[in-house]
UniProtKB/TrEMBL annotation:
It comes from Crocodylus porosus (Saltwater crocodile). The gene is MAN1C1. Involved in the maturation of Asn-linked oligosaccharides. Progressively trim alpha-1,2-linked mannose residues from Man(9)GlcNAc(2) to produce Man(5)GlcNAc(2). The active site is at residues 126, 259, 368, 393. It catalyses: N(4)-(alpha-D-Man-(1->2)-alpha-D-Man-(1->2)-alpha-D-Man-(1->3)-[alpha-D-Man-(1->3)-[alpha-D-Man-(1->2)-alpha-D-Man-(1->6)]-alpha-D-Man-(1->6)]-beta-D-Man-(1->4)-beta-D-GlcNAc-(1->4)-beta-D-GlcNAc)-L-asparaginyl-[protein] (N-glucan mannose isomer 8A1,2,3B1,3) + 3 H2O = N(4)-(alpha-D-Man-(1->3)-[alpha-D-Man-(1->3)-[alpha-D-Man-(1->6)]-alpha-D-Man-(1->6)]-beta-D-Man-(1->4)-beta-D-GlcNAc-(1->4)-beta-D-GlcNAc)-L-asparaginyl-[protein] (N-glucan mannose isomer 5A1,2) + 3 beta-D-mannose; N(4)-(alpha-D-Man-(1->2)-alpha-D-Man-(1->2)-alpha-D-Man-(1->3)-[alpha-D-Man-(1->2)-alpha-D-Man-(1->3)-[alpha-D-Man-(1->2)-alpha-D-Man-(1->6)]-alpha-D-Man-(1->6)]-beta-D-Man-(1->4)-beta-D-GlcNAc-(1->4)-beta-D-GlcNAc)-L-asparaginyl-[protein] (N-glucan mannose isomer 9A1,2,3B1,2,3) + 4 H2O = N(4)-(alpha-D-Man-(1->3)-[alpha-D-Man-(1->3)-[alpha-D-Man-(1->6)]-alpha-D-Man-(1->6)]-beta-D-Man-(1->4)-beta-D-GlcNAc-(1->4)-beta-D-GlcNAc)-L-asparaginyl-[protein] (N-glucan mannose isomer 5A1,2) + 4 beta-D-mannose. GO terms for cellular component: endoplasmic reticulum; extracellular exosome; Golgi membrane. This is alpha-1,2-Mannosidase.
Length: 498
């Protein structure tokens, strides 16, 4: 019996008394010792979330992130004047965890203080995955129109970024003037694969909710450009010119700069209720090329995905690349014949390697990047790669692996992360990243990232919930872990997918 309900959209209206009803349902279904243990574990995650939220609210409400050591807020320069990244990122986690009072506080802030009339340079990608994704998920979970209208208003503001000769958007946009640029650090004015390739899920929902086909047209055009262009050995490089539509550099990575592009291919197919065959084919082809050219085994028997620089392999995996265990498992579920087992094995091996990167450190948290060369196995070799900023990718893979195999080791591994977070990242006023996972002497970075509330805590909580809480049949998680419903009823946006 499910511990909590949160299965289908229709069952989660924002009706008064909803939270009380949920708590009643929870207690009513507890029958076995295992269920008592699960209930207590999830209660622990709820307390972690409450601690993270309460401190943000106390010291930084309305800023983008909390600085938990200095007890103040951080604004940063990623969101172009938008504020409250932690509020928007936390909304659905608070709701799912049934933290009613805290959810109402967050909702009130969005209603009264979230200002969309801002002027400043924002990352198209970050605004989409955190703000648009967060608002959409809040709308789908609660049915509250306010979230929907803010998501649509913000979506409209992102459209000018697509005004380029190819329709491939630039990475930076001024939300006030609509002017857009490429990142200064991106070679030759290029756009980044993981950025323009991580809009599809949210934009299809924007069309669905507004009836305006423009959002779907923009992302379908990106797909067209990507399908037309020749790919070196079937691989997708990370840098593409929005002017010529050609690759600018041959750097391929399943970690940073490439990562969520692959994730959105398989999830586009799943979100379309498996109708978007083009996305599935692109995913299958990309994974085949990755398996052929990038998947390697270390001398010590650890499977990893290397990076590729114009044909030369860099034997390194970033923490970001650790999401791929979960993604490959999700795709394997739907692969045919021998491939199903082969991909499931690959997913399990990569997740194991990422777990090793955690268990080989003194803090039991993983570094930003780890290497497999000169006798090194799954450990960071450079000082600059030893930090952990509360990232979710490893626990994200534990969640998918747990849901798809029910091997208890994934829950055990998740619990190890919780213990390490409590020991090394919890400070007086929230959770902080650490600068070196290989020392237990505290060296905090004074930042509680918004994705800690959106993703890390949500994935950990779901890891200990029953499978029908946000089931993988009914929901896909965007790359910031915001749940979006699968289109079981063929929404209008799909017209152009066929
Ligand atoms: C998040 O914002 C998203 O998961 C994104 O896809 C990658 N980076 C962070 C978390 O590490």
């Amino acid at each position: 019996m499910p511990l909590i309900h949160l299965r289908k959209r229709e069952e989660t209206p924002g009706n008064p008394g909803y939270f009380e009803e949920q708590m009643f349902c929870r207690l009513q279904y507890i029958r076995t010792e295992q269920q008592v243990a699960l209930f207590l574990t999830s209660f622990f995650f709820v307390q972690m979330m409450k601690f993270a939220w309460d401190n943000y609210k106390l010291y930084a409400l309305g800023k983008n992130e909390l600085r938990p050591l200095t007890k103040n807020g951080h604004i940063g320069n990623m969101f172009g004047g938008l504020r409250g990244a932690t509020v928007i990122d936390a909304l659905d986690t608070l709701y799912i965890m049934e933290l009613e009072e805290e959810f109402q506080e967050a909702k009130k802030w969005v209603e009264k203080s979230f200002d969309l009339n801002v002027n400043g340079e924002a990352s198209l990608f970050e605004v989409n995955i955190r703000y648009v994704g967060g608002l959409l998920a809040a709308y789908y979970l609660t049915g509250e129109e306010m979230f929907k209208s803010k998501a649509l208003e913000l979506g409209e503001k992102l459209l000018p970024a697509f005004n380029t000769p190819t329709g491939i958007p630039r990475g930076v946009i001024n939300l006030g003037s609509g002017m857009s640029w490429s990142w200064g650090w991106a070679s030759a004015g290029s756009s980044i694969l993981a950025e323009f390739g991580t809009l599809h899920l949210e934009f299809l929902h924007l069309t669905e909710l507004s009836g305006n086909p423009v959002f779907t047209e923009k992302v379908m055009n990106i797909r067209k450009v990507l399908n037309r262009i020749e790919k070196p050995q079937g691989l997708y490089p990370n840098f593409l010119s929005p002017v010529t539509g050609n690759w600018v550099q041959h750097h391929v990575s399943i970690g940073g700069l490439g990562d969520s592009f692959y994730e959105y291919l398989i999830k586009s197919w799943l979100m379309s209720d498996k109708r978007d065959a083009e996305a599935k084919k692109m995913y299958d082809d990309a994974l085949e090329a990755i398996e052929k050219h990038l998947v390697k085994k270390s001398a010590g028997g650890l499977t990893y995905i290397a990076e590729w620089r114009g044909g030369i392999l860099d034997h390194k995996m970033g923490h970001l690349a650790c999401f791929s265990g979960g993604m490959i498992a999700l795709g394997a579920e739907h692969a045919g014949g021998e491939q199903k087992q082969q991909h499931m094995d690959l997913a399990a091996e990569i997740t194991h390697t990422c777990h090793e990167s955690y268990s080989r450190s003194d803090t039991k948290l993983g570094p930003e990047a780890f290497r497999f060369d000169s006798g090194t196995e799954a450990t960071a070799t450079r000082l600059s790669e030893r930090y952990y900023i509360l990232r979710p990718e490893v626990v994200e893979s534990y969640l998918y692996m747990w849901r798809l195999t029910h091997d208890p080791k994934y829950r055990q591994w998740g619990w190890e992360v919780v213990q390490a977070l409590e020991k090394h990242c919890r400070v007086e006023a929230g959770y902080s990243g650490i600068r070196d996972v290989y020392t237990t002497t505290p060296n905090h970075d004074n930042m509680q990232q918004s994705f800690f509330l959106a993703e890390t805590l949500k994935y950990l909580y779901l890891l200990f919930c029953e499978d029908d809480v946000l089931s993988l049949e009914d929901w896909v998680f965007n790359t910031e872990a915001h749940p979006l419903p699968v289109n079981h009823t063929n929404f209008k946006a799909k017209a152009s997918v066929h």
